[in-house]
Amino acid sequence: MTDRESLDFTIRTLGECAVDSPLHLSHHTGDGIANYTRRMSRVLADNSEEAWIRFKLKGEKPPVLEVAGPREKIYFSPDKVWAGIVSCGGICPGTNDVIRGLVMELYHHYGVKNIQGFRFGYAGLAKDGEEPFELTPAKVAQIHRRGGSFLGSSRGAQETGEIVDTLERRKIDMLFTIGGDGTQRGALQIAAEAKRRKLKLSIVGIPKTIDNDLMYVGRTFGFQTAFTIARDAVTCAHAEAESARHGVAIVRLMGRESGYIAAKAALASGDANFVLIPEVPFVLDGEAGLIAALEKRLRERGHALIVVAEGAGQELLHRRAEERCTDDSGTAVLGYIGVFLRHEISERLKKSDVRPVVKYIDPTYLIRSAPAIASDNVFCLQLAQHAVHAAMCGRTEMVVGLKGDDFIHVPIAAAVSRRNVIDPDGELWRSVTEATGQPLLREEKERTGAESAGRAVSPARE
């Protein structure tokens, strides 16, 4: 049984929806008025041909996801609701768009006037956290035009009991948690404690992780902005590389466990010759290693561009267990793979006749702090709107996401059940290897006969 088959995609609710929605939408197609989402609207969690055949043969119903959107009946009375918003983890393009979207939807469309913004992540909900402030349309009107987080952000776990104490003391009925894996795991703990106390608290997450590594949500906001800006850095790095005799440019991008930004930025630029990601191990030494492939590239073409995700090649750094540490959130601190590669390439090839000129570029914080591009502006607003619709209907322990063309509700437990990573056998990685023309960078004994056949020459190798 696969993870997807065993997961429960049922969305928990706080109770019966008996309040008329103030949105005044329609039930009929063709009348020029947007429709309410039908209560039982669902989409397949896995609509692949393989999954369809598997469930057809078993005679079982495939797992489905609840479709997001406004319902005719809601759970909360808008004039009595107190809403809270918190953003956690590293900053990400689009955070302010989401905050603004939540406030605008709550205030203007549902008539919710009591909206609290909690400062600096979950630390703002702790016993000694900073005072929250009231959020109004006037206060958030222009925040989507700049990067960062209007509410501030932070990493690190806080005492769940203290957080729920704060929410209870401030009479918060719904909490919108903007963040990634760690944030949503924290939200799940908050929801569990609220349930234990028999509090009617709706917890709805908006998936913010620049690495695009949450499961079942389609894509996370800020990701498209991230790889678009990263593309520009890769393009500039290519100019650096080809402007020097035997120039090598190394661009380190975000991606602790998932190499999506590195892969998409490389594809968008069309200039990368090597893309290194956490999902695909590589070796430095030997005829199949990176150093040999790089030396060959420099002899044939005179320059090279390497795009590396921050989590790639960690096993090559040979750090002792006692040297490994974690940050305030308990996340393992990674070694600096880009700096390591710069040193190794320079040292290993300095005695050869190619003697590379190595440039190292790390645009991480410039990317994280940038305002969102147009496509993310739209996506963030829609996520915020659907998050409000879900919370007003008493949905809880869930995040909003996108499945194909449909916005959907995903239980937090499913979204954080494992990391969304690049499939080395899948289409995206095939596109990368075809675009770069890079070899497999593994020892011969690790390859299959098919893998050993080599790669076709691509435009990026020119």
Tell me the layout of helices and strands.
Elements: H1 3-6, E1 12-13, E2 19-20, E3 42-44, H2 49-58, E4 64-67, E5 73-74, E6 82-87, H3 95-109, E7 114-117, E8 133-134, H4 137-140, H5 160-169, E9 174-179, H6 181-196, E10 202-207, H7 223-242, E11 247-253, H8 260-269, E12 274-276, H9 290-301, E13 303-309, H10 337-349, E14 357-361, H11 364-368, H12 374-392, E15 395-396, E16 398-403, E17 406-411, H13 412-415, H14 427-436
Parallel strand pairs: 6-7, 6-9, 9-10, 10-16, 11-13, 11-14, 12-13
Antiparallel strand pairs: 1-15, 2-5, 3-4, 4-17, 7-8, 16-17
Helix pairs in contact: 3-12, 5-6, 7-8, 8-14
Keywords:
single chain; 462 residues; alpha/beta; Rossmann fold; 2 domains; 9-stranded mixed sheet; 4-stranded parallel sheet; 14 helices; 17 strands; elongated
Strand content: 15-25%
Unreliable spans are: 448-462
Structural class: alpha/beta
Helix content: 25-40%
**Taking strands numbered 1, 2, ... along the chain, how are they ordered across the largest sheet?**
3-4-17-16-10-9-6-7-8
**What can be said about the biggest beta sheet?**
9 strands, mixed
Measured distance between first and last alpha carbons: 46 Å
* SS element count, helices: 14
**Could you say what the CATH topology of the largest domain is called?**
Rossmann fold
CATH class designation of the largest domain: Alpha Beta
> What is the number of domains?
2
- Quaternary structure annotation: single chain
Overall 3D form: elongated
CA gyration radius, whole angstroms: 24 Å
- Number of beta-strand segments: 17
